[in-house]
Amino acid sequence: ARVARTPYLTSFGPDVINLVVDTPTVDEGTPVTLTGTIHDTENGNQVIQSAEYYLDTPPWAGGIPHTLQPSDGSFDQVSEVVAATLDTTGFAEGRHILYVRGRDMGGFWGPPEAIFLTIVPTGSISGTVQEHGSLDPLAAEVIAAGSNEYTTSAFETGAFEHHGHE
To answer: What is the mean pLDDT of the chain?
Structure first.
């Protein structure tokens, strides 16, 4: 199925195996490491020439390529472990898909492999809990809407502050 778009081209290119995102669910702005193995042992046995990943938009739809580097420092083997560190600053909240592919010395791009990366919202909430009439401080559990995380306000001041996922 991964070669269905261009069966007479991508079937000659290297495969992607062992694709991993070290932390598949992160707060926006947290760097993640993408690793995988590009190998041509079953598709021509040629040396790997390059590898790249695409965020959300695959190569056939005009996605922007990002380079994956060989872990041993150079592309000179039929099988190469590759990696990239992704800076998730500015990534939209939600589920993203990373497409990875490699190219061999024959110039053939192999079929892309995909993996998910999820960006979770973070935030903070703070304030003071007071009794309506007297404005005296109150101790209370404060829960953000749509969350199961909570914090407790101080009995003496009514103040609360919580940092974490919204």
So the answer is: 86
